[in-house]
Design a protein that fits this description.
Blueprint (H helix, E strand, L loop, with lengths): L3 E7 L5 H10 L4 E5 L12 H6 L1 H20 L14 H25 L3 E9 L4 E6 L5 E10 L3 E3 L12 E2 L1 H4 L8 E5 L3 H12 L3 E5 L11 H13 L3 E3 L3 E7 L3 E7 L2 E7 L1 E4 L3 E3 L32 E3 L10 H15 L13 E3 L4 E6 L2 H7 L3 E7 L4 H5 L6 E7 L5 E8 L2 H13 L4 H5 L10 H10 L9
Parallel strand pairs: 1-2, 1-5, 2-3, 5-16, 7-14, 8-9, 8-14, 9-10
Antiparallel strand pairs: 3-4, 4-5, 6-15, 11-12, 12-13, 17-18, 18-21, 19-20, 20-21
The structure holds flavin-adenine dinucleotide and adenosine monophosphate.
């Protein structure tokens, strides 16, 4: 191991590993320190996203969806399947293989790009030095021209529900449940709570979600959120809003005490997932002598170029402000690498897509109607339901809608909100359109293949001007 580098990246999640690869592509000499270890103790690259976040959750969502389809949907297609059984340990090991293949892929990319992977803890010292403490062995001091902090985030815990990872679980342990709990409680009906709740609901758990806010999915356009809530409830998810969990007691079951507008309530569950959000990983990240500025919630303070208050030290991903999304961190990682290499680097924070991978999927970019109203921005809106598209009908999935919000005077697209089949893929068209400052008319005049789900986006754009074809405007 050398002890001097052009760039040292601390953290190998989607923000850090992407920054490291881009730096290497630009000819910089890079080391990436990461302390993550799998359940078998082996180090792995990829951070939360690949190991205990985006990828394993999507693997389980997909498996549970297949199970649900076989049990509930195939008969409608004229396919009768008998003797269906569930093998949860196999489902978990398939998920583990998906994760191992992908994290192994990052290891290969590190090799190919000659990035030094340092397995252990990184700590920022003064003068762009980094203390590296390997999993086994003595700490050593490394020197860098530039340091990128990409240490990510970890689950928030609440005093009323102390996690033991046996009965009361973070999302990490929720990805390892080996048999279907009869009753599952989830605190927090946000992105992670809904995704995890959906997995176990499809596999047969009775799922209750306890959400503190009175509004369901507050950051989502409320028309889409209401529509989605109806679908989730049809599927059996019991979503209770305005609930404040006050205490949990563990006996044979977990007794969850909470208060809502009607007073004190109680539910008994076999497992409880705490999914109330995540907090930045900054503990032990910098030495006491380093005056690294953080904000009141512990996020490393950065400007639009992800520069911290210390020259030559950058921070990207979940450890800084902005949405805790893998692709946001990756874009920041690429931007910082380019800036370090003397190139122009930029992230357009206005066009970051968000996705919730439930059934229906929910995806959006830009402003919600409530945000536009609050800002006093004049807007017009167009909507179109998937039920009126041939493709969604053929797929037996005629639920949800596309909603496009455009400026009332300029017609520039300000926000696109989709709840429905493959919303995660469809949203990209909206992101590209907004990136190119498109008007709703631009989308309306763009030819969309037939029959596709994207026709709902086309029709919603037409509907902004009250000229959708397959609905009464
Ligand atoms: P992380 O991925 O958290 O990586 C940080 C790495 O740094 C970790 O490996 C950590 O061990 C290491 N580290 C921390 N401190 C140190 C230190 N001092 N020294 C050395 N190493 C250190 N986002 C999406 O966009 N789409 C999704 O579908 C999605 N699904 C999710 C599902 C779940 C269940 C969870 C929990 C998250 C999900 N997310 C999703 C969020 C996504 O995982 C994060 O936004 C993303 O991982 C952040 O990337 P990052 O590189 O900033 O940090
Ligand atoms: P997300 O930020 O998408 O992961 O969602 C976290 C969700 O948890 C949000 O909807 C929060 O309102 C909710 N939440 C936060 N704290 C609590 C709490 N103590 N009890 C119930 N829900 C909470």
């Amino acid at each position: 191991m050398a002890n001097s580098y052009d760039v040292i990246v601390i953290g190998a999640g989607p923000a850090g590993y992407v920054a490291a690869i881009r730096c290497a592509q630009l000819g910089l000499n890079v080391a990436c320190i990461d302390e993550f270890r799998r359940k078998d103790g082996e180090p792995a690259l990829g951070g939360t996203c690949l190991n205990v976040g985006c990828i394993p959750s999507k693997a389980l969502l997909d498996s549970s969806e297949q199970y649900h389809k076989v049990n509930e949907e195939l008969a409608g297609h004229g396919i009768n399947v008998k003797g269906v059984s569930l093998d949860v340990p196999q489902m978990i090991s398939r998920k583990d293989k998906v994760v191992a293949d992908l994290t192994g892929g990052i290891r290969q990319l590190f090799k190919a790009n000659k990035i030094e992977w340092l397995q252990g803890h990184g700590k920022l010292l003064t003068e762009r030095r980094v203390e590296f403490t390997p999993h086994k062995g003595k700490a050593q001091t490394l020197q860098a021209q530039n340091v990128i902090l990409a240490t990510g985030s970890k689950p928030i815990d609440i005093g009323a529900a102390p996690v033991d990872e046996e009965r009361i679980l973070t999302s990490d342990a929720a990805l390892e449940i080996s048999e279907v709990p009869k009753r599952l409680g989830v605190i927090g009906a946000g992105v992670i709570g809904l995704e995890m709740g959906s997995v176990w609901n499809r596999l047969g758990s009775k799922v209750v979600l306890l959400e503190a806010q009175d509004e369901f999915l507050a950051p989502v356009d409320q028309q889409v959120a209401r529509d989605a809530k109806r679908q989730f409830e049809k599927q059996g998810l019991d979503i209770r809003l305005g609930c404040r969990v006050t205490e949990t007691r563990k006996g044979k079951t977990v007794s969850v005490h909470y208060e809502d507008k009607d007073g004190k309530q109680n539910i008994q569950v076999d497992k409880l997932i705490v999914a109330v959000g995540r907090r930045p990983n900054t503990e032990g990240l910098s030495h006491d002598d380093v005056e690294l500025l953080t904000d009141e919630r512990g996020f490393v303070h950065v400007n639009d170029h992800c520069e911290t208050n210390i020259p030559g030290v950058y921070a990207v991903g979940d450890v800084v402000r902005g949405p805790m999304l893998a692709h946001k961190g990756s874009e920041e990682g690429m931007m910082v690498a380019e800036l370090i290499a003397g190139q122009p680097g930029h992230v357009n924070y206005e066009t970051i897509p968000w996705v919730i991978y439930t059934h229906p999927e929910i995806a959006w970019v830009g402003k919600t109607e409530a945000q536009l109203k609050k800002a006093g921005t004049p807007y017009k809106s167009g909507t179109f339901g998937f039920a009126a598209t041939g493709r969604a009908r053929a797929m037996d999935y005629p639920v949800g809608m596309v909603k496009i919000l455009a400026h009332a005077e300029t017609d520039r697209i300000l926000g696109v909100h989709i709840g429905g089949p493959q919303a995660s893929e469809l949203i990209t068209e909206a992101v590209v359109a907004m990136e190119f400052s498109a008007s709703s008319e631009d989308l309306a005049r763009t030819i969309h293949a037939h029959p596709t789900l994207s026709e709902a986006v086309h029709e919603a754009a037409l509907s902004v001007d009250k000229r959708a074809i397959h609905k009464a405007n």
